[in-house]
Amino acid sequence: MLGRIRQTFADMSLTRFKVPAIISVVLILTFTLSVVVASALSVYTVTIQDADSTLSLSTRKTQPEEVLAQANITLGENDLLDTTDFIEGSDSALTVYRACAVSLVDGDDAKTVTACKNVEYTLAKNAVAIGPNDHVSPALGEPVVQGMTITIERAFGVTVIADDETTQINILSGTVLDALEKAEITLGEDDETQPVLDTALTAGIEIKVLRVAYTQRTVNEKIAFTQTVKKSKEMYIGDSKPVQAGADGEKSVVYNDRFVNGVLEDSAVVSEEIIRNAVPQITLVGTQIKVSTIKFQSGLSPISDLPLPADIKLDANGIPLTYSKIIDGTAKAYSGGGTTSTGRPARVGHIAVDPRQIPYGTRLYVVSLDGKYIYGYCIAADTGGFVKTNGCTIDIYMNTVNECYAWGHRGVRIFVLD
């Protein structure tokens, strides 16, 4: 070869002195080319990790795919060859990740997907986006294996309103208290929330922070006087007379005021102290019935033969001077003898009443409103048949049927003596 080079330069009529220099350059180039060729053809070791198996291969191949072909390793459609640790011509490594099927549970959606390498790669390969507050289990860097389940918990939005500011947060789960902590909102000792702190969070829930403050104040207040009515038998119904003027009192009241977000919401009484008692207004009202005067026919005598008790006095017209009340009503007459409901004998002077209105044994004095009869002193001793029909006020007893017919159904004034 050297001879050829010399012959070439000789043919070119090179000078004697230039030939050695050119020969030197050619020799250097030849040496460099030999080194490069030798390097390209040198053997190095590639460690191939294929799933659970490891293979060390001596090779002169320069491309990862060529190395796999030399090792008789083929890739499936969804398998992955990781060349991160591969260095051409130097001892290095290749990693083969085999595809598998896993379950993907994304909130309420569950499906089977093709997985490879790790959780993060699998989600990306299946175009599943993960938000910054979402939670993935197992962790993103966890290797995938056949049949495993990948679960994604999606964060949801929560609105927190506090101190006239609205904060939006995303959270996976928890209670109102957890949401406040995430929003970096601190509650005072008396502060409250709507809903309450232990309420479970749901998507879209709105939480209001109520800033609560309590203050006490003392005020003097009027005590309004009361009006008391007392009954007087000395006055007629409809008449009244004040006997004591009313006067307002005064008290010192301590309130505990509750402010919510700066607005007074309610007040509670802590204590009261009477400064001056109120004086009640007292009014007398009459209970005596003012009745019309009855003009009696002359020469009338009481029908009842019951003796008039000594404590009952009559006026010139034969009317009791004292009585507890007057009842104006109606009366029928009956006869026939027998025994009354109270066991007394049926006789003139023993009359029938409604015991719910006039109790048995009550002493009475009865006259007709038309002034034609004075039945006189009598006692409530029997129950009238009118009780069921509400037809009369009393039934008076007569000795004969003819007297009953003569009496008929007549208006009466009943003086209640007891």
Describe this structure in words.
- The chain has 418 residues and is mainly beta.
- The chain folds into six domains: 2-40, no CATH class; 44-97; 100-153, Ubiquitin-like (UB roll) (Roll), CATH 3.10.20; 158-210, Ubiquitin-like (UB roll), CATH 3.10.20; 215-287, Single Sheet (Resuscitation-promoting factor rpfb fold), CATH 2.20.230; 325-416, Barwin-like endoglucanases (Beta Barrel).
- The protein is built from six helices and 24 strands.
- The protein has helices at residues 2-11, 18-40, 64-70, 119-125, 176-182, 401-407; strands spanning 44-50, 53-59, 80-82, 92-97, 100-106, 109-115, 135-137, 149-153, 156-162, 165-171, 192-194, 206-210, 212-223, 227-236, 240-244, 249-260, 263-276, 281-288, 325-334, 350-353, 363-368, 374-383, 394-397, 409-416.
- Strands 20-22-21-24-19-23 form a six-stranded mixed sheet.
- The longest helix has 23 residues, at 18-40.
- The protein is elongated.
Short description:
By secondary structure, the protein is mainly β. The chain folds into 6 domains: 39 residues, no CATH class; 54 residues; 54 residues, Ubiquitin-like (UB roll) (Roll); 53 residues, Ubiquitin-like (UB roll) (Roll); 73 residues, Resuscitation-promoting factor rpfb fold, CATH 2.20.230.10; 92 residues, Barwin-like endoglucanases (Beta Barrel). The protein has 6 helices and 24 strands.
Comma- or semicolon-separated keywords:
418 residues, Ubiquitin-like (UB roll), six-stranded mixed β-sheet, 6 helices, 24 strands, elongated
